[in-house]
């Protein structure tokens, strides 16, 4: 590595960073954190460049020209290049980038963005040795998701009320992009008020989907085939994907099975054991009383069968697979 291109900034940030996956929310958060480390309070307009290597007519040489430019009144320069996994970026990956990485400018943080990569590729290995390969993955465990929601609320300048994070997860699910959107909506809804409570997210976040899933399982629990198929048709009209509907039902039946084990089977005990919002605890307790344990096991087995069918197990349109599932659990 040439000493003439080294600087004290080399310890503050890597000369090259590969961000893989993550979607908009996680990616934007990672870039914002890097921007603070690289540019700090410096002039952002002069020290940040963005490129898209997947765009027709893009010149990969422009990316490296920017990476080789010294920062102006800032600790470093941030160069972002999307689409480095695109077919149009083959020359960049296999020729230009490896040559640049032989002697990178250490006052630049070159950030390459890809949807997916093969870690066995030479250019990926080279980035890993010199800088960092970061796969962006959101939290998956309930406790981590609740903590993540609370941190996002605090970053929005609000205070998360007790039970707020659990209520949001119950209503929206675990997709971090959708959770972020609903947090923004809730923050706007409360206005000048400091705290976002569970009642606030219940009013603005995912009500229709949650209500529809409860209505569908209510109808299934009461063996009311007509209302069950009607609610299913409503979900389809709303544009809910069959796999998403099945996933919501699978999660709901699993919660019902856990609620059925609560003794006594009362909302307070369900809330304590499952860590859900009081509204969800009340509905789960009501529905769990309608399902015998063996019936819930049969429903979960039907979910597995439908999941296999949706993923190619049978040659039926997806909406018919879900209808057959509802017919089987209402029988």
Question: Overview of this structure, please?
Answer:
The protein has 331 residues and is of the alpha/beta class. The chain has three domains: 12-135, Rossmann fold, CATH 3.40.50.300; 142-204, Helicase, Ruva Protein, domain 3, CATH 1.10.8; 207-330, Zinc Finger, Delta Prime, domain 3 (Up-down Bundle). It has 16 helices and seven strands. It has helices at 23-38, 44-47, 60-67, 90-101, 122-130, 142-155, 164-172, 176-190, 198-204, 207-221, 225-237, 242-260, 267-274, 278-288, 293-313, 318-330; strands at 16-20, 48-52, 77-82, 108-114, 132-135, 159-160, 195-196. Strand 2 (48-52), helix 3 (60-67) and strand 3 form a beta-alpha-beta unit. Helix 4 (90-101) packs parallel to helix 5, helix 7 (164-172) packs parallel to helix 9 (198-204) and helix 12 (242-260) runs antiparallel to helix 15 (293-313). It is elongated, with a radius of gyration of 25 Å.
How many domain units? 3
The biggest sheet amounts to: 5 strands, parallel
Tally of strands: 7
Q: Tell me the name of the CATH homologous superfamily of the largest domain.
A: P-loop containing nucleotide triphosphate hydrolases
CATH fold-level name of the largest domain:
Rossmann fold
- Structural class determined from secondary elements: alpha/beta
The spatial strand order of the largest sheet comes to 2-3-4-1-5
**CA gyration radius, whole angstroms:** 25 Å
In which range does the helix fraction lie? 55-70%
Q: How many helices?
A: 16
Spans where pLDDT lies below 50 across 5 or more residues: 1-10
Strand content: 5-15%
User: What is the CATH C-level name of the largest domain?
Assistant: Alpha Beta
By CATH, the architecture of the largest domain is named 3-Layer(aba) Sandwich
Shape: elongated
From N to C, what is the helix and strand string?
Answer: EHHEHEHEHEHEHHEHHHHHHHH
Q: Give the termini separation.
A: 71 Å
Mean pLDDT: 83
